[in-house]
Amino acid sequence: MTPNKAYKLLGGLLLLVLSIAQLGVCARPHGTGDGQDLILATCKETLYVEVCVSSLGSDPRSRGADLEGLGAIALDLTMVHGSETISQMKRLNGQKNVTRDAYMAGCLRDCIEEYSDAVENLRQSADAIKEKMYDTVNDMVSGAMTDSDTCEEAFNERPGYVSPLTERNQYFYKLCSNALSITKLLAS
Fold this sequence. Notes:
The protein has 8 helices and no strands. With about 190 residues, the chain is mainly alpha-helical. The longest helix has 29 residues. The N terminus is likely disordered.
């Protein structure tokens, strides 16, 4: 290869690398003002935009947060929802009509265990996001999603049983999905 062709090839590769790097910078949401712009730009990158906007928008910490802060807040909100779901399951499991139904009581006990694991995964994710260990965040949050799915599926194993947690499980799943989307933006 002649030196002139080598320089042209090298120049073309350098231009390609710079273009890709610029795309990566543009893919990250940028916001100004009171933080609402960044929340909206970030949430547009998630599957559950309305859940994202309402959850992050309702937390006062979001207004001054950068993208990493929004990721940490999203994980925290998901953890809180998971903990509240555990409390609801414990209340349900204490009701007389549930304690007489061994299958329902067993499902709730299993769900408490699954959600306890999910909340622990989210705690680990919150630590990992501070360390910019985004692969760990993805693994832990994906595990939490699986835990909530496992809880929901337990009720569906017997005909005639309906999960009393479907709405909470679906919302938890959406919160997890949004946290994963924000982590993906952080990793880009």
